[in-house]
Structures are given as structure tokens and as C-alpha cells.
Amino acid sequence: MITSAGGLLYRRRNNVLEVLLVHPGGPLWSGKDAGAWSIPKGLIDKDERPRDAGDP
Fold first, then answer.
1. Which residues pair with 11 in a beta bridge?
2. Mean pLDDT in runs of 10 for the chain (56 residues)?
3. What is the count of structural domains for the chain?
4. What pLDDT is stored for residue 55 in this prediction?
5. What string of H, E and C letters represents the secondary structure of the chain?
6. Distance between CA atoms of 34 and 10, rounded to whole angstroms?
7. What are the backbone angles phi and psi of residue 52, rounded to the nearest 5°?
8. Which domain holds residue 19?
């Protein structure tokens, strides 16, 4: 089974909440913007806990 983890990056600017979204890359996603946005995430190693994913 492949498992991924992500984090929602956000900030408040001028009393407005802003979130960071990413778009999948590569030729498969070229020109497909509608509904193709997501939060940044990546794969979790087999021996890694989800909350530790991405720590150096």
C-alpha cells in the first residue's frame, strides 16, 4: 500500500485567510486546471510515521 502525508500551509494577511495549493505536474495534467488542485504532500517511507514525514 502507498501512503502519503501532507500539510496545510496557511497565513492570515489583512484579516484574510490564505492557503497554499499546488497543481500536479507533467504532461498528464497539462491544461487540466479545474479540480486538479491539492495540498502539498509526498510519500511516506515504509518505516516512517506520518507525523514525522518530511523531517530531515
1. 18
2. 85 96 79 77 84 70
3. 1
4. 62
5. CCCEEECCCEEEECCEEEECCECCCCHHHCCCCCCCCECCEEECCCCCCHHHCCCC
6. 22
7. -95, -5
8. 4-52
